[in-house]
Request: fold
Amino acid sequence: MTLGIIETSTLLPCPFCGAEAEGQYGDNAVISCTSCGASVTAETTMIVRPPSAQRDHQMWKAVGAWNERRAVAPAKEVG
Ligand SMILES: [Zn+2]
Reply:
């Protein structure tokens, strides 16, 4: 299984600890914090398209979910 590295320049810092986030693409696109381990996973229905298009779509969804989470999540979460 080849894992692609999601372009990190599009990723915002972790909403919880401010550390750098990194993304990886495998069966799903996963973006996780390098420090606290917070993560989001994007699962998409496999579309009949070139794999590169499918991958781009999943990465786009994961990055969007991560960045959006930052916007809605409090700077510090209790518990
Ligand atoms: Zn973090």
